[in-house]
Structures are given as structure tokens and as C-alpha cells.
Amino acid sequence: MSKNGKGRVALSVCLALSISACGGGGGGGGGFPVLPVTTPPTSGSDTPQAETPVDPPKPPMATTRYTFALGDAGLAGLDPLLTELQTPKFSGQRLFYLLPISSAGGALRGVYWGVEKTEYVHRLAPASDAVDLSRLQALGAEGYKLNSMARLLLEPGAGRVLFSKDTAANIKYEYADAGAFPMKDSDKPEFLASLNKMGSDGYCNVEVGIDTTGGTPQIRARVVREQPTTARCSFTLNPVAKTYEERVSQGNRLGADGKIFLTDIPTATTESLYVQDTAQKTVFKHHLTKLDLKGGAAIGLSDPEYQKAFVALLNEEGSKGAFPSNIGVEETRSNLVFTTAYDCTGLLCHY
């Protein structure tokens, strides 16, 4: 599966009124019992009929609306990306996706997304800041979070990365090391226990980091939490889905309990890591949409008509609260998994 990243139809509840009516009975005489006679009340009865109390209907579950826009510039590096993000047209938005301008490769075109009442500013930093725990801590304390999609804009040398900050929200990010990613199946119980220990303190997201302190680079799990937060998260491993249809089915089954997919853990037995914020009653629902690619993937993705249809679909789904949480490309089509998060706050809402 490709792009995982971190999206999300109101339910209505109908309550039936249950009205019960009772009649009275008569007595008997002599030495034999007489069965009571039930007399239905007449329309002119002076006795008011009691109604079963009815709870007020529950409000519909809340969702978040998303908007998307296709960029104008050809992006051959991070400097033109930052310039476009700072133009009035795209000010306050984030980079969501990149599309090729030509089937021969080269420059890319940005797809940007925004949410109501968010205002983003951006900062370029050395690529090492994306994996160094102390640098992540320092940038997170200022409210900056890594934009992973921008890493596809390759630059010569060590390269740089893009961090984005929502200035409309007073949110900071804290990072912690949760240990090495498991290399074999027997490592998974200890890894999962470490995640759940950190999750109980509000660390709900997992990112990949690299530790070089021992001389040999080691892939580490970096967990993230917002501050302030009320989140309390638990992690589970589940059988890996082999198709997009299976991923949607599994996501809906687990999403009914508030669980959302994070990443696959590839060992001898690959499993999918899911997380749930037990402090809120969130529901996640998923559905799959496919877009045809004319002339194959290389040509189809760079087709201006496909790109317009792609962004139009994102906006149609985004207006209903659905976020494109997974986009995969095959030779003749794109597979887009849309996720709607109901009554969700915090890190887990935009996947």
C-alpha cells in the first residue's frame, strides 16, 4: 500500500414511542371466583393515558470538511514549493500530494489541502532534523510537524525537509523513543508493550527515526503526542490486508470500535499496526474509489484531465468529511481509500 499518512456521513437515530394502555377489572360473588373483565377505555375517558418517557434524539456525529487545490508551479525542489505555499492562493494550506507534470519525469505539481480555521506556516530544515530526536523535540515544541510528502522532492547533497505549523491552534508536539522496530516475529510482543506503555501517556502516532549514537544506524520507532492532550491510546497488531478491498473491510470492522490503521510491520509474518484513542468515542468509516489511468500510469498521472478529475474527487469527498488516507497506483488505475472520522479530535483524525 502507498501513502498512508494520517481522513473521515452523519448517523441519525430514530426512537420509537411506546404507548401502553391498561384497563380495570370487576369482582365476583358467591363461592366461585370470577375472572376479571378487561374493559378498553373509551374515547371520552377522563383518565389521561401515560406515555413512556422518550430520550431526546442524539445529535449527529461531527466530521471535518476538507478542501483541495492543484498547484500552478513546476516543483523541482523545496524552494519553489515553499514559494508557492506562501502565495495568497495557497496561503494557509499544506502539501498533501505530488503529481508528475511529464511522463518523462522531472518537475512535479503540488496538491494542497486545507481545513476550516487552520492557518499554516512552513519552515525548511536539514534532512537530519527529520530523524534526530532532539531536533524533532525542539521543532515540535514550537508547534512544527514534519511533512513527509515533501521528501519526494529530491535535492542534491544532504537535502532538506519541510516542517509545517498550524498557527491557529495552540498545539505543541512531544516525541519519545519507543524502541527499535521489530526485525523478527519474536520481537513484536516487547515492541507492542512499549507502544502501549507510551500510548497510556497520550503518545498516539508512530513515526520512523534513525539512531546513530551506537555507530551503526538503527531504525527506531518515534512516538508523538500533542500538548495539551487528553488522549489515551492502545495499539494492536492485526493480520495484514492483501488488497485494497480487504483493507477497507478490515478498516471498517476495526474502525467501528475507534481503531485506525497506522503502518504495516514487515517481519516474517507481516502484520498491520492499528491504534485507538480510548478516551474518545470515535468511529472511522472507509470506502474505496478507483480512477482510470489512460495510457498507463506514467502517462495517465501526468494527464491534465486526470489531475483535474483527481482534485475534483478529493473535493467532492472532502465536502462530506472524507479524507484520502491511502492512494495506490496500478498500471491502469489509481486506488483511493477515503476515511471519514466521526467525533474525532487530535492526532488520529486525518489519515
What can you tell me about this protein's structure?
The structure is a single chain. This protein is α+β, with helices and mostly antiparallel strands and 351 residues long. It has one domain (66-342). The protein has helices at 78-85, 133-141, 188-199, 244-255, 297-302, 304-318; strands at 66-70, 94-100, 108-115, 120-126, 144-147, 160-166, 172-180, 205-211, 218-227, 233-239, 259-265, 271-277, 283-292, 322-329, 333-342. The strands form 5 sheets. It has a 3-stranded antiparallel β-sheet with strand order 1-3-2. Strand 14 (322-329) and strand 15 (333-342) form a beta hairpin. The two termini are 14 Å apart. 32% of the residues are buried. Mean pLDDT is 86; it is low at 1-43.
Cα separation of the termini:
14 Å
Listing every helix as H and every strand as E from the N terminus to the C terminus, the arrangement reads EHEEEHEEEHEEEHEEEHHEE
Anisotropy-based shape: globular
Provide a count of the helices. Answer: 6
At a glance:
The protein has 351 residues and is an alpha+beta fold. The chain has one domain (66-342).
Name the descriptors:
three-stranded antiparallel β-sheet, single chain, alpha+beta, 15 strands, 351 residues, 18% helix
What layout of secondary structure does this protein have?
Layout: E1 66-70, H1 78-85, E2 94-100, E3 108-115, E4 120-126, H2 133-141, E5 144-147, E6 160-166, E7 172-180, H3 188-199, E8 205-211, E9 218-227, E10 233-239, H4 244-255, E11 259-265, E12 271-277, E13 283-292, H5 297-302, H6 304-318, E14 322-329, E15 333-342
Antiparallel strand pairs: 1-3, 2-3, 4-6, 5-6, 7-9, 8-9, 10-12, 11-12, 13-15, 14-15
